[in-house]
């Protein structure tokens, strides 16, 4: 069975909720899925053994949280080239973080990305639950 890893950072728990919904969608798509806070990833070996990766962070004042920036430098040391990737995050008035994560995964890590990043104001608003689950399903489908 294919395995997915969802890594997130959050300030108000909105991005954590999205992370869990993306993982749920991966499971609906027939993939095992593990969810980790960036604080629980200690080294690049913690990223070994997965077929798909979704990284998420909220946007605050037009910026990605520092914990995700630091994590991305760590993830750059892992061999993620060719792996399935996706990026997500919650936002208030702007939503740069998911796109910046997505671009890093695609252009720096050379990952095989899903169509685009997932940006939600809140998982519970405007069909956010279904959108996050569908994002995870799309990742599972792409992983085969």
From TrEMBL:
InterPro entries: Flavodoxin/NO_synth, Flavoprotein-like_sf. Residues 4-140 form the Flavodoxin-like domain. It comes from the Bacteria. One of its GO terms (molecular function) is FMN binding. PROSITE patterns: FLAVODOXIN_LIKE. This is Flavodoxin/nitric oxide synthase.
